[in-house]
Amino acid sequence: MDVYDAAAVSSVVELSEISVAKQGRPVDVPDFTRGGWRTAKPLEIVS
């Protein structure tokens, strides 16, 4: 887990509140990496 994963997990409460205010409509989770996940190298411990 890195800081971007932590941001995504932490955003669930806020996004849930927005979704409820919109009568339960889905809300997209923002890409906190700004696309950086596409070129991120995997962690060596997960090989």
Category from helices, strands and their pairing? mainly alpha
Helical segment count: 2
Average pLDDT reading: 88
Task: Estimate the strand proportion.
Answer: under 5%
How would the global form be characterised? elongated
What does the main sheet amount to? Answer: none
End-to-end CA span: 15 Å
Rg (C-alpha, Å): 14 Å
Number of strand segments: 0
Considering DSSP H and I runs of 4 or more, what fraction of the residues is helical? 25-40%
What does this structure look like?
38% of the residues lie in helices and 0% in strands. It contains two helices and no strands. The chain is mainly alpha-helical and 47 residues long. It starts with a helix and ends in a 26-residue tail after the last helix.
Briefly say what this structure is:
38% of the residues lie in helices and 0% in strands. The chain starts with a helix and ends in a 26-residue tail after the last helix.
Considering the chains and any ligands shown, give keywords for the structure:
mainly alpha, 2 helices, 47 residues
SSE layout:
Elements: H1 3-10, H2 12-21
